[in-house]
Design brief:
The protein is mainly α. The protein has 7 helices and 2 strands, in the order H-H-H-H-E-E-H-H-H. The protein has one domain: Arc Repressor Mutant, subunit A. Helix 2 crosses helix 5 and helix 3 crosses helix 4. The protein is globular, with a radius of gyration of 18 Å. The two termini are 34 Å apart. About 6% of the residues have low confidence. InterPro entries: HTH_MarR-typ, MarR/SlyA-like, WH-like_DNA-bd_sf, WH_DNA-bd_sf. Pfam families: MarR (PF01047). One of its GO terms (molecular function) is DNA-binding transcription factor activity. It comes from Nocardia coubleae.
């Protein structure tokens, strides 16, 4: 049986509110120094390894101009660096620096600690059940994007990022 329009709207509303709650409860102080999404760029770049900006933008499902703003900020702060592509001297690769990797590690630790605190009254089984349901939802959304032929499909690299 298909999901009703009301149930779909309710889930969209809850996901929107979940994003707000996550940002409010799990943000790390140093994230305030970055554009929103900057930590996501670092996480994706850390998982993917050195790459061209156009490829990273596709993985993140964002425009190249949006990624360019992130890259400029992250280069200026020393969290990522550019280097010539050894296979094509005309192209540039971006990569996470040790400073960026350290920031990413601190943010991940802080977020995990914050989530553990927020879920203090949950059982391990409840957390695992929530993880399974969210994973199923993510897979369904990624599959739907792939089947509709959207240009902003979710790549396997972006599916595996731990931010």
């Amino acid at each position: 049986m298909a999901v009703s329009p009301d149930a779909a709207q309710g889930l969209i509303r809850e996901l929107f509110l979940m994003g707000r709650a996550i940002r409010a409860a799990l943000s790390h102080p140093e994230e305030g120094d970055l554009l929103p999404g900057g930590v996501g760029v670092l996480g994706s770049l850390d998982a993917r390894g050195p790459c061209r900006q156009v490829d990273l933008a596709a993985d993140l499902c964002i425009s190249q101009s949006t990624l360019s703003r992130h890259v400029a900020e992250l280069v200026n702060s020393g969290n990522i660096a550019r280097r010539a592509d050894p296979l094509d001297g005309r192209a540039t690769l971006i990569h996470i620096t040790d400073k960026g990797r350290d920031l990413l590690w601190r943010v991940r630790e802080s977020r995990a600690r914050g989530l553990r605190d927020a879920l203090a009254d949950w059982t391990e089984g409840e957390a695992e059940q929530a993880t399974a349901v969210v994973h199923k939802l993510r897979d369904s959304l990624a599959s739907a994007a792939h089947h509709t032929g959207e240009s902003r499909t979710v790549s396997s690299e972006s599916q595996e990022v731990d931010v």
